[in-house]
Amino acid sequence: MTTTPQRPRRPRLRLAPYLFLAPFLAAFAVFWVWPIAYSFFLSFVNTRVRPWRFDPGFNWGRLINDSAFWDAFGNTMLILAVQVPLMLALAVALAMAFDSDLLRLKGFYRFAFFAPLVLGAVPYSAVFRLIFNADFGVLNYGLATLGLPTVRWLFESTPALVTIMIALTWRWTGYNAIILLSGLQSIPRALYEAARIDGASAWQQFWNITLPLLRPVLLFTFVLSTIGTLQLFTEPWLITNTGPGGATETLVTYLYKQGFRSFNFGYASAIAYAVAITAALFSILQIRLVGGRDNG
Amino acid sequence: MHRILGITLAALALSFAAAQTLTVWVWDINKPALESTIESFQAMHPGVEVIVEDIGNQNAYDRGLAGCAAGGFGMPDVYLVENNEAEVFWAQFPDCFLDLRELGASDLLPLFPAFKWAELTAGEAIHAIPYDSGPTAIFYRRDLYEQAGIDVNAIETWADFIAAGQAMNAATDGAVKMGTVAKGADDEWFRMLANQADCFYFDDDASQVTVAQSGCVLALETLKDLYDADVLAVGGWVEQIQLIQNSAAASAFFGSWYGGVIQAEAPDQSGLWGVYLTPALEPGGVRASNLGGSALAIPASTAHPELAYDFVVNALADEENQLRILFDYGLTPSLLSLLDSPALDQGVEFFGGQPVWSLILGTLGDVPAVAGTAFFQEAREVMIGVVNTYLDGGFASAQAALDQAARQISQATGLPIAD
């Protein structure tokens, strides 16, 4: 057998694939890469003066000393620390209920709990404003009927924040439960059978089988919810209008106000990068803490 | 051949017509109000078509900023701008709107009050012509006041207003309040009261933060007195309307345009309402202030500056047009010559036949002038928070609250705090 020496094939530059990719790449460059790069540059520009002036410390210096920014940061972190764990715990319970052999009409319930996400944000927010209305809302009516004190939900600081958390939980629990359900269904039934034969209680099965095997999916929902909370805009904007007095101001509502109400794009860009950096740090931290053992 | 000639002629006619169309961007009630002036405008300029588009208040601001940022692309021929927001345009895009002095607007200066011009001029340049104003007043329910035994003639100061509110609380077991404060949602009450005391976030040339000065301190203390006396309900724009519709608010303190809002939202209460002047901060003090109002500007990108200017002047500086806009649409004119017009003494049915417009317009000359500022939104955001915290007892005194506000506003704007 004669063998012709096979030269390593030089990859020929083929034009066609790039032509097919070109429309996407062009759109990606214009609508993603360019704004991301330009806003990074803008965060070092004083846009308060005309013409704009390059002044690297101007926006970042203000960010460090801006109490309104740190209030918004604190509100966002509080929602993250309280609402996200509660919601995910609820979502795990809900997912297990969806998965239960005892439940009939599974399809209906799965859709019903997913439905809040299908609803438009504006009508849902308007309805929440009505429910939480202090004088004529159904929630205070219910509290009063039960003999409980009523609350000015939208016009006092802590109740307003609680309102936002309730709204977020209502909207996103079902969504997370559906994702977690897919995780539950990937756990082999044989593990539970073996555990039962060994005499493990339901509680032991949950702690030693369900939760550990659900960890990757749980981590995924945790990271998604964290990023979602850091970008929280709709609910505080439409339900509480970031009030009362900034009590429900979040990082992104503050960013929007700086950018599009005050027309201060330099400062808005600095806030945007602060949010992005925070989100990246959180994601890394969560993956290290929760997911590290599997991957490492 | 004839057909081709016909088409050519039609095309010519079309392009001629297109060259003679004015587009006007407005919001809400301003559309029918300005449309009612078109006929008299066309009497001067036959064949010129005017299209008034209602694009919504927030949308007008957003699209205006976007249009100016794009060098005037897509802007209309005439643009309605809210006074509060006007300075953002003049500061960010000084070339986006015409300097109307080139079209003769200097002649209009004496026709309108100084406080209106303050927000519409930048240096010497005149960027817009005053449209409606928002002189404040108290709109009140005659029947509810009567039931509580309150005489509006006895309310001369805010202290009197509080006393009346306590009578209202006693008569209705606290079910009916004297007004609605948007605590934590807006600082309108503070701004209206501060304007009475000739105080604002910034000084007259918008170069220093003056919010911690004595007039503003008095305004904030007065608001706290009102709030602590439990005579005000708490609620934003929508909640205030709900309270009015449910007869749970016996009055409303706002700019004059709010009369039109009440008429539109509570038509079944026609005849039950009345108006009295804003109470003074101190005995014998000013019983006038202003909140809101708007103006018409002409984008520099227009192809028909003269026509646009004639439209604006005809709509805003013509007594007949302004009177109709007032009586039919409830928009308070800024035209000073109307103050002497006997037509103002007409009673208004919704307000129980009271000649409310002569009462409200009579205060126009007393309104302290406030300079425009490109930093209105920043300062307002700070004040909404500070007023809210102060009402909740979070500061030792009004002075301490406003010192804190001044520091925050100064930091956000880079302007120094006045001594």
Question: What features would you describe in this structure?
Answer:
The complex is a heterodimer of chains A (296) and B (419). Chain A is mostly helical. Chain A has one domain: MetI-like fold. Chain A is 73% helix and 1% strand. Chain A is built from twelve helices and two strands, in the order αββααααααααααα. The mean pLDDT of chain A is 88. The relative contact order of chain B is 0.17. In chain B, the strands form three sheets. In chain B, strands 1, 2, 3, 6, 9, 10 and 11 form a seven-stranded mixed β-sheet that branches. A two-stranded antiparallel sheet of chain B has the order 4-5. Chain B is of the alpha/beta class and 419 residues long. Chain B has helices spanning 2-19, 30-35, 38-44, 57-69, 83-92, 114-118, 142-147, 158-172, 188-196, 214-228, 237-245, 258-265, 305-316, 319-329, 356-361, 376-391, 398-413; strands at 21-26, 49-54, 78-82, 121-122, 125-126, 128-141, 179-181, 232-234, 251-255, 273-276, 290-297. In chain B, 43% of the residues lie in helices and 14% in strands. Chain B starts with a helix and ends in a 6-residue tail after the last helix. The chains are: A mainly alpha (296), B alpha/beta (419). The A-B interface holds A 48, 50, 62, 65-68, 71, 129, 133-136, 152, 154-157, 241, 243-247, 257, 260-263 and B 62, 65, 88, 91-92, 94, 183-185, 233-236, 238-239, 242-243, 246, 248, 375, 377-378, 381-382, 384-389, 392, 408, 411-414.
